[in-house]
Amino acid sequence: ANVVVDWGNIGTATLIVVENTVCGPQGPDTLTCIISNPPISPIISYPNDTICSFTTNQAYSVINNPTSNYLWTVPVGATIISGQGTNAITVNWGDQTTTGSVTVTEVSVCGNGALAMQPITILPIPTDPIISGTDSVCPKQTSVQYSVANTFGSSYNWTVTNGTIVTGNNTNTI
Questions:
Q1: Which of these, 89, 124, 135, 173, has the minimum number of CB atoms within 10 Å of its CB?
Q2: Residue among 133, 118, 126, 1 nearest 60 (CA)
Q3: What is the pLDDT of residues 42-79, one digit of tens each?
Q4: Element of type H or E holding 126
Q5: Are 57 and 90 a contacting pair, CB within 8 Å?
Q6: For residues 117 and 43, is the Cβ–Cβ distance under 8 A?
Q7: pTM: predicted TM-score of the whole model, two decimal places
């Protein structure tokens, strides 16, 4: 025998059955049901959308629906080290030097939520700067220029002894 139920509001509900036979009642049997929130379109919380290759322990999360599971994906080369299936993951980034996305889909008995995607820019780890410019100067010589290769997202802190930086501190050229 089948029974069809129209459930009420979010919360806990109970379904009870007693079988009445010619030998008398059998049971009861009780089934406790959880009436879940339907999936939402989650928004991924994250510490930074620009990171360096080999960054570790980056946390990503969405608001938790306790009756749901969460399916996360990360780009090739990144690894989810904890949290797959939950509303929060921790990721170790590998040797990528491009962009990729962290994605998540909420999965519940009420269906799947919309895919949420957070683009991440992955920068290469810069090499140590190499100063270009002359290493032989005259006393009181002025306007001698020095530089290092410019790396996107970097600033540069120059220090000089027995001289004065005239312009360009915090840039790749002084």
A1: 135
A2: 118
A3: 889 998 888 888 999 999 999 998 888 999 999 998 99
A4: none
A5: yes
A6: no
A7: 0.66
